[in-house]
Amino acid sequence: MNIKDFKAGDKVYIVEKIHQNETVREDEVIKVGNKYITTKMNKLQFYLNNENDTFLTINRDWGEKELLFKKEQELKDYEEYKKLKSELYDKLRRLEKYSLNQLRKIKEIIEYANKV
């Protein structure tokens, strides 16, 4: 993702985190700068925190982080990512349920992913 992928008037999706709850709202880009995207509602500014991210992060040092997505599919992918991460974390906490061969395959997948 790149800041220059955005233009004024684009519809965007913002994930707002309040405690453990997340809500999604639509907003509109009103300004695209070199480092920040500014949205219409509340004139919020978002920046690219990591080049590998599929979202922008709100520019503030307090409160919960809000995330901005350019496309609805990117938002859906992020939601699936969180769900899978949570499911896998829960399953991997109970490793005694897995056989030695299953654990070897899990390790192989994880090691391969870390090399890529």
Provide an overview of this structure.
This protein is α+β, with helices and mostly antiparallel strands and 116 residues long. Helices cover 32% and strands 28% of the residues. The chain contains 2 helices and 6 strands; from the N terminus they run E-E-E-E-E-E-H-H. The chain has helices at 72-92, 100-115; strands at 11-18, 21-32, 37-39, 45-47, 56-58, 67-69. Strands 1-2-3-4-5-6 form a 6-stranded antiparallel beta barrel. The longest helix has 21 residues, at 72-92. The chain is elongated. It starts with 10 loop residues before the first strand and ends with a helix. The relative contact order is 0.14. The mean pLDDT is 91.
Please write out the topology.
Blueprint: E1 11-18, E2 21-32, E3 37-39, E4 45-47, E5 56-58, E6 67-69, H1 72-92, H2 100-115
Antiparallel strand pairs: 1-2, 1-6, 2-3, 3-4, 4-5, 5-6
Low-confidence stretches: none
Query: What is the overall pLDDT average?
Result: 91
Biggest pleated sheet: 6 strands, antiparallel, barrel
Strand order of the largest sheet: 1-2-3-4-5-6
Strand pairing plus helix content: what structural class?
A: alpha+beta
Number of strands: 6
Total count of helical runs of at least 4 residues: 2
Kindly provide the radius of gyration, computed on alpha-carbon positions and rounded to a whole number of angstroms: 18 Å
Strand content: 25-35%
Series of H and E elements: EEEEEEHH
Task: Give the overall shape.
Answer: elongated
Distance between the termini: 19 Å
Fraction of residues in helix: 25-40%
Tag the structure with descriptive keywords.
116 residues
